[in-house]
Structure formats: C-alpha cells, structure tokens
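Same chain as my last thread, 218 residues:
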Amino acid sequence: MNQKTTSDPMATLYQEGRHTFVELVPDGGARLDALFHAVPALGQLAVGVVYGHLHSRPGLDPRLREAVSFAAIVASGMVGPPLSVHLKTGLASGLAPGELTEILLQASAFAGFPRAVSAAEQLNHLFADAGLESPPPPTPREVTSRFCSDVREGHSPIPLSAAVKRQLRHADRLALQACTAQAVIVECFQSPETQPKALLYVTVVDDTVVAVKLFKAQ
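reply #2:
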C-alpha cells in the first residue's frame, strides 16, 4: 500500500488537527497514538476532520464548538473515549466544569434520561481522575448573575467603584455572557436604548466574583 505524504490534503489536515489536539490535551499525542493504534487511518480521518477542519472554522468560538460537541456526545450515548476526550478539550477551550454539567442537564431533556444518567455516572469518574471538585461550583454566569442581583439590591459582596454600582443599579436590563471559565461580560442597558450603556468585565474564581472592570460606551 502506498504511504500518504504530507502533500495529501487529508494528511495535512491530520497534522493540523493533531497539533491543535496536543495543545488542548496534556499527553495528547500519546493518547491519539494509543486510541488509534489498530486503525491509524481512522485517527487520520477523525482528528483531521474534527480538530483540523472544524476547529479552524471561524463561525463558532472554541467554547461554543466544544459545548455543541459535548452535548452531541451525551445525546448519542457515547460514554467512552469521546466523553473523556471532550471533557478535556472542553475545559481547555474555556468551559467551566459547571457548564459541562449544565450542558448534560440540558441535553437530558432532548436525549432522554437513560443516556444522560450514563454520562453523569461516567463524569463522576472523569471528574475524580482530573482532580475536579464534584459537584462543581456554580457556573461563572450563575455566580455573576447572583452578584449583580446583590449589588442591585444594595448589597455589594466586594468593594466596587461608585461608577460600577451606578451602572448596575440604574440599568433597566442586564445581559450576561460567559466568555471563559473565569470571565463574564455584563451588558448594561437603559430603555429605550438598544445598545448597552456600559460593559462590565467580571472575573470569577470558583463561586466568587473577585473583580469587576467597567467599560463605558462612547
């Protein structure tokens, strides 16, 4: 059988995908070699498509792409290597452990409880192996939402500038978007404006907001 060279498009995608995977997963290269030892062509195809092609597409950010992948794995009932791998790549792409369990919970309503329970049982082992707290802390968005409610009610859990307090208390509506496992963007809206009057960059550690930075709209 002729060996494929690096000029082959699939081989090139595999090398790109392998590089991405190794960046995301400690000992990723050894893991791929062991997983696809008997069928290396399957490794070239799977890694090339998922981590070479799909991960390079600009339409989704890595967090959202991994969230979709994790939900699909739960929905399909795969509790072996795919769940283990995408737990690791999800965390490396900026998903918090609590977000992964929340994704599993969301998927259970559509994929069915038996598959979700099987995935949850496997997550017990995966969390333990990774040294993760179980159950995990609340998601960064949940922590930030609670924090914002406290400030709007006049109880600030941490010292804040008068400007930050004013934006939170005067906003008619807040929109929260987690952007990493430790950061949430809060948009502060005032009716009838459709653009936020200010943005807050909130840093979360475990279940606590530790810092808030204000960016005012021009």
